[in-house]
Amino acid sequence: MQDRPEVMFRLSGRVDVDDWRRRHERGEVPDAWPYGLDRMAAHGVRVTPAPAYTGDPRVARLARGLGGRYEWLESRTSAGAPDAVLCWDERVGVPSARNARGPKVLTGVIWLTDEQRTSRTHRLLAGSALRRAHRVWALSSAQLPVLRDDFGVPEKHLVHLPFGIDTDFFRPAATDPEPGLVIGAGNDRHRDHPALVAAVGTLRRTDPAVRLELATRQAIEVPAELGARHTALTHPQMRALYGRGAVVAVALRPNLHVSGISVILEAMACGRPVVVSDTPGMRDYVTHGSTGLLVPPGEVSAFAAAIRDLLTDPQRAAEMGAAARRDVERRFSTQVQAGHLAALL
């Protein structure tokens, strides 16, 4: 019988996995390791985090600035390399894949298909590396044709990896939602929080019970009479916020990398109905009319109408939230995601 494959995983941003594990034990973060990568062990894979970078951080920062934000120095593979290196995103995946004589590299791609499509130099740099990778995955199926056509990654190496979240940590609340309370969240540049604020404002003009609580570091004004903005919430606080919400709504600008999917799946796992912009890839996760409602991006009136439909029909909202929870348990947990990753090996 073959030995179990030995895989080293690499995360961008120099995440301290041991610190994450300690925080998990205190109930502060979901999953024992980021993205539940420790769960691959249950699928026959020996997995260990990459050693921490110990060089001069100033030199590493300079290399990132000159080389397209990739973590060139942090991603070097030392002696005693494993069977494969699994990279969560392209910031570590591109540098790892360029080492043609190293172990097999499997890497995810997140922001590349949105941010750099117009840069020919960047397409050549990233494409030459990704074409060497054993597998390249994306969380959105809409990204795969771009990786094939714009970056030249062979189609047989491309995989759609459904994203997963910790369904033990994100779970339905023991209390009922607060009537009229809409929850929004997210920090990336593809969030369209002004559209969400406008939609809730429209609803409040006819129903003063409607209000918004928005969790974001973005400098978005939420008028006091409309609700509140939270700038720094912990994972347990976000879980509690989802539990209070009657609807979780995420307005998005067009993007390919399925922006907002963490918030959407976390809310669904908490048994809450979701309203979200129908960007490419979102249909991989939300079944319109069953586990959530999809609305064309930028259409504030349609977004407001979808939220109103759920706020005024609590039974439908509850049934949709329960269906969403079941779907996340079946298809979008980190345990399921770990199985997909193990299968790539």
User: What is the class of the largest domain in the CATH system?
Assistant: Alpha Beta
User: What order do the helices and strands follow?
Assistant: EHEHEHEHHEHEEHEEHEHEEHHH
How many strands, which pairing sense, and closed or not: the largest β-sheet? 6 strands, parallel
In the sheet with the most strands, the strands line up as 2-1-3-4-5-6
CATH topology group of the largest domain? Rossmann fold
**Can you name the CATH architecture of the largest domain?**
3-Layer(aba) Sandwich
Beta content: 5-15%
Structural class: alpha/beta
- Count of folded domains: 2
| Percent helix | 25-40%
Number of strands: 12
Ranges where pLDDT stays below 50 over 5 or more residues in a row are none
End-to-end gap: 16 Å
The tally of helices reads 12
What is the overall silhouette? globular
Provide mean pLDDT, rounded.
93
Task: Please provide a written account of the structure.
The protein has 345 residues and is α/β, with parallel strands linked by helices. The protein folds into 2 domains: 6-161, Rossmann fold (3-Layer(aba) Sandwich), CATH 3.40.50; 181-331, Rossmann fold, CATH 3.40.50.2000. 34% of the residues lie in helices and 15% in strands. It has helices at residues 17-25, 57-66, 90-97, 112-115, 120-130, 144-149, 193-204, 235-244, 261-269, 300-311, 314-331, 334-343, and strands spanning 6-10, 46-49, 84-87, 104-109, 135-138, 158-160, 181-185, 211-215, 227-230, 247-250, 274-277, 293-295. It has a 6-stranded parallel sheet. Helix 7 packs across helix 10 (300-311). The longest helix is centred in the C-terminal third of the chain and has 18 residues, at 314-331. It is globular and about 65 Å long. It starts with 5 loop residues before the first strand and ends with a helix. The mean pLDDT is 93.
